[in-house]
Amino acid sequence: MIMKILKPLLGVVFFALLAVSFTILGADSAEAAADRLVIEKESQLFDEPDLTAKTGASISPQTVTVLEERANGWYKIDTWLGEKWIAPNGVKADLTFSTKIYNEPSFLKSSGASISPQTITILDKRNDGWWLVKTWLGDKWIAPNGIKLVTKETYTIYNEANFSSGTGASLSAQTVTAINQKAGGWWQVKTWLGNKWINVNDLGFSVPLKIQDYVVTSTYGPRWGKMHFGVDLAKSGTVEIVAAAGGTVSKSYYSSSYGNCVVVRHSINGNTWETLYAHMSSRSVSVGDTVSKGQHLGYMGNTGDSKGQHLHFELHDGLWNDSKSNAVDPSLYINF
Fold first, then answer.
1. Other CB atoms closer than 10 Å to residue 114's CB: what's the count?
2. What sign has the CA pseudo-torsion 106, 111, 112, 116?
3. Contacts of 98 (CB under 8 A, 6+ apart)
4. Comparing C-alpha atoms, which of 176, 173, 87 is closest to residue 129?
5. CB atoms within 10 A of CB 117
6. What is the C-alpha to C-alpha distance for residues 189 and 185, in angstroms, rounded to an integer?
7. Any signal peptide, and if so, which residues (predicted)?
8. pLDDT tens, residue by residue, 32-58
9. What dotted CATH number matches 215-332?
10. What predicted TM-score, i.e. pTM, was given to this entire model?
């Protein structure tokens, strides 16, 4: 009699337990699904939740198990390399001040636009300080904290991006924070004097004349249908020509084109440069002579292929040659 009563009760209990069991299993399955992440495009793997901590490896599109998730876009996952981090949709960050936007990771490649303070999505970071971010212009570059610039020499500090604004101070070789750049080797950097300028092309060359009231009659670049490989400086009267930097005279000769000409070879920071001085009325140095910066070389003239008294001055990053393949614009290194 008792067994007849208990059998139906046992059946109810069994089905109730079975239902609970299915409910628990279903809850576990849903939780597992919530810990899965579908990677829709190839994504870089990182050792830490830091866009500069790249492993050099990437993971292809697939579904992965998430071990940890952070609100700014980082996911910790298990990979064949062990536990690594990914940010397949970028990393969220707060930009607290207006920042210029660049088309490439270079201060010389400005887009002309700026991004206002807001939460941004960072897609990539370079070790030097450049960030690739999403913008209304597409994926662009910003450097909100400046970039790292390694200076290998001592440079004069300038107030502005010109050689006539020297502060009288210099910056020794070190890693500095650069916040702007201009053509010709100019960098604006943070210093103990504030934001100042240095010129990495500043190798110590000076105007190769004893006087200051000369006129630049022709610059480096195309002229009259061909390339003019130097800068022309003119002044009437007796004008003394001096060495733009210390070195050794490698050529002293006369030619139908250059007229009386002197070439001085310089060794600067382990590199070889040559300066050329043409159309001189006379030469006062010979091949092999050692000259110091500012030392007399001769006088301005009108010899060779010349249309009036002037100095034709060339600067070569390397040795002078007939094709002038090493010629550079002297105005990038000297404030004429």
1. 12
2. negative
3. 114, 115, 116, 117
4. 176
5. 11
6. 12
7. none
8. 345 899 999 999 999 999 999 999 999
9. 2.70.70.10
10. 0.65
